[in-house]
Fold Cell division protein DivIB.
Amino acid sequence: MSKTSIPVLKPNKFRKMKTSRKIMFILLLFCLVLLAVLFFRSPISKISEIQFQGNVFATKEQLLQAGEFNVGDQFFGVSAATLEARLLDVKSVQNVTVDKQFPGVIQIQVQEHTTVAYELGQEGSLMAILSNGVMVPVKTSGIAIEKPILTQWNPTDPYKLELSQVLGAIPNQLTSDISEIMPSPTVSFPDRIKLYTRSKFEVITAVSLLKDKVEYLNQVIETEEPGLITMLEADSYVPFLSGDSVPENGDGTTNNE
């Protein structure tokens, strides 16, 4: 009888290699998890500095509260877009840009609504009226002396908000001579207003017409003597008689009705 030879079985190298890869993957994953834990517990993963620029009326504390973040929080815990959306909820803020610089620094550029006028608050404190109609307390360093004072306005008057928006849309050089604005409604013009200028003119116009009429106002102020300027359906100018100049208040405004 012939003998049948039995082939020698080769070692299962593939199975050993597959097991080794699994072990290496588990070790690598463990190292990554360990590094992540150590990183998020280390100071380098936290906010170390927050820089605000451009804010005049909104305080740093108000912005931090609105943004719901602070020094010591996780740097990657919130995105720049989320912070920008939160900070836009602050009434004085018009636009905001957040720049996150690793490690730990957040720079925030704030653009606030422009100041268009001032008004005395109920407690006698000076309030700034912004272009969106919001009233905010005035800091001494934040006063723009070329802005008008609003007087005799009802806080709920809808034309007050409209006036704020109109003033915000007019270049500053065209309104810098206006010292006081008060409501003076009529049946025909419920948004009629009366203005007084630092150059001693008295002006009658309407909130809805002011933006289109303001250039005429400046032309008269630059070329004529003090007088009464009417800017409604038609424009007119009547100079004050030499003995009929309206009396001035201490701030250069007048009391003539």
Summary: The longest strand covers residues 93-101. The two ends are 138 Å apart (CA to CA).
